[in-house]
Amino acid sequence: MSKLVVFGANGATGHAIVEQALRDGHHVRAAVRDPATFRPVQGELPPDLEVVRGNVLDREEVRAALSGQDAVISAIGPPGSRSGGLYSASARHFVTAMTEEGVDRIVVLSSSGVRHDDPHHPLWYRAVARTLMRELYGDMRAMEHVLEGSLLDWTAVRPSRIVDAPATGNYRVGDAENPEGGTAINRDDLARFVVRATTEDGWSRRRPTIAH
Asked: pTM for the whole thing?
């Protein structure tokens, strides 16, 4: 059993990651902007779950939330299509706080759209990535670069389009490139992959890109 802190735990994907980590037997610390708004897990708060304040734009809150944990998972995301520097700013706070607290392992959610020249993306998607989503994907790319320049044991998971559907266990993972023909990934399958990647060594300092 590992002690995992999940930032962005109130979002759809973050919440799925919390639930999956609990099912896998880990102790989970859900870090959210306002603990009073945290959505229940399985109707109540299980004994292996604690909910804490953890605004990723506040370095001291980040440090307090990850103190004493074995690994960090970031499932943060902005409410719209612009990030306003959320990803890169949070990465800088993670690097500083984790270094100060002696926590080495971090897995962050990025996007397959970060690589806008991916040959396995259709032309229309590459055009969108360079235009309408340029700011968002650029900030995710900056987040990855911050982590890459650190001494942390990081993984940047790049999902394709996330959809709400039952987990299938049937998906493909490319190494820094989208699986050919892959356009979507079920949220629960993504959550399973993230939790497993956090506690295993196979994707250390790499960018797994996941799709059905």
From this structure: 0.95
Task: Evaluate whether 207 touches 180 at the Cβ level (below 8 Å).
Answer: no
* Selection from 90, 118, 85 nearest residue 14 by Cα: 90
- Residue 172 phi/psi, 5-degree rounding, is -120, 150
DSSP helix/strand/coil, 203? coil
What are the helix (H) ranges across the chain? 12-23, 59-66, 86-101, 123-130, 134-148, 187-199
Tokens at 54, concatenated: 């953890």
Element (H, E) at 155: strand 153-159
Residue 68 three-state SS: coil
Q: 209 near 197, Cβ under 8 Å?
A: no
pLDDT in tens, 109-136: 999 999 978 888 776 676 667 776 789 9
Could you tell me if 176 and 148 are in contact, meaning their C-beta atoms sit under 8 angstroms apart?
A: no
Residue in the block written with tokens 């945290």: 38
Q: If 0-12 CB within 10 Å is exposed, 13-18 middle and 19+ buried, where does residue 197 land?
A: buried
| Cβ atoms of residues 114 and 59 within 8 Å | no
Dump pLDDT digits (tens) for 25-69.
999 999 999 999 998 886 556 889 999 999 999 999 999 999 999
